[in-house]
Amino acid sequence: MKKGKQPSLNNLLEDTSFINWAKESNQNDVAFWNKWIEQNPDHVDIIYDAKAMVLGISFNNTSLDKSKVDNALASVLKKIDNKATTKQPKKLFNLNKTMLRYAAVMVLLITSAVMIYQLSDKATTVVHKTAYGEIMDLTLPDGTNVVLNGNSEIQYEKLNPRSVTLAGEAYFKVRKKLETNAKFWVHTEDLVVEVYGTEFNVNSREEKTDVLLDEGSVKLLLENGDRKQMVPGDFVSFSRNNKTLSQEKVTSELTYASWKNGTYIFNKVPLAEVLKYIGNTYGLETNYQNEELKDIIISGGIPNQNLNICLEAIQKSTGIKIKHIENELLIINNTINQN
Amino acid sequence: MLNFLTTFSRRSTKKMDCLADKSVWYSFIEGNVQAYSAIFRNFYPGLHNYGLKISGNETLTEDCLQDFFVYLYDNRENLGEIKSIKSYLFVSFRRALLKSLKKERAFTSEIPEQAQLENFEFSPEEIAIKQEFTAIKTATLTTILNTLSKKERESIYLKYYSDLKVSEIAIVMDITYQSVLNNIQRAFSKIRKELENKAVQEIFLSN
After folding, report:
1. Which sequence ranges are marked TM in the entry (chain A) (predicted)?
2. Is this prediction's pTM over 0.95?
3. Which residue segment(s) compose the domain that B185 sits in?
């Protein structure tokens, strides 16, 4: 948000950082907007209108008695049923029509069979790909929800949507198939995640695959045939190249899967790792003026839907200067720069 | 921080509900009665309340709503591609209800069309009492809400009561996206000013 200009209502309402301020949910954003307001007293009205719109009014949902809904549904279903049965006797050429109907069904079946056969070779792979910094919400045909992080790609065969291939990072909420107990697989370069119904995060960047399990249970199938069972809170990292498997217990899933909620949350993470992560989702390379800068420790939430705000937040909390030139981030020590 | 997480997780589940709705909708179109019943259960209460707000007449609302659902089933194959199920149901039901209201009122008296939303009123019981809201403030807010224009009231209702998106409200009320935003902004602007006035009055009265 630039200084001096009257912000538009639309922009404010779609700005994650602004919403965070209105809800007082992210300290960086609160600080940013409080300062902004101080500097732009002329626009206070629209800011407070927009804040009121974000917070809204909470209504008690005087929800209808369930029995009332059931009764209404029963009477509607009866009306539908009655209509269907009263219509039937009116038909004159009953036999002919049923014959026709069968014929139509047969034709339909044959054509669809032919089409499925023709299609089965081509265009049966579904691919979803996100641009740098874009987050995409998907529902697979089986009801599984996938949140795809920036610069990531997921694909699956139309006929087998419960086996997907992932490059990049995604969060999965797998719908359990109670009737069939069907499994769900995520393939990465390094391993296969096998699940029944659960919530987990997979990140296959940096020539390794990280899997974080939020809920339920998953099994990892490694190339050498090894299997690894995970329980909620487990964070496992495996690299095909050096065949090392590391496992740790995550006390809070925030650090690893918070991206899907619009904020990165880092808990005592060195700057080099933070920027590597951000670089991956936005397609940026990072260069440091001196190596010591890499070790600056960062803790806290950083809004991730707008790169500029994201970088601004890092600059503020560390005191470093970040120059963003095309596809490169240049990290400069602020105090040296001023001299 | 916790607060932030709950609001976001709530938002994301809402989004997922919408996506799940779509597949239920398609099986309803194919004639699946279970899917139809699920849609009915999901939307009946919200539409019922919306209808009540518009008409102020329970029997009329219920009759019209049930007829509307029967119509929906009978014509399911001709409904075409639907972008948002919720806004589709709200706008179609609104149209049907206004039609039958017109019919009914033609018998009783001549009331101009605009007066049809006369009953769009809020009651203090409907406003959730947050911790910072005393009972007095809730009553005040209700009074202020009811002084807003009908369009502003309906916009507020659809946004925060029925949980529709701005783009969906635009479809339901048949106005532009920007007009919806303006309605809501104007409403809150008024509410803010009125609440400030009231607060000032209270200070003087208590002294």
Report:
1. 99-119
2. no
3. 120-207
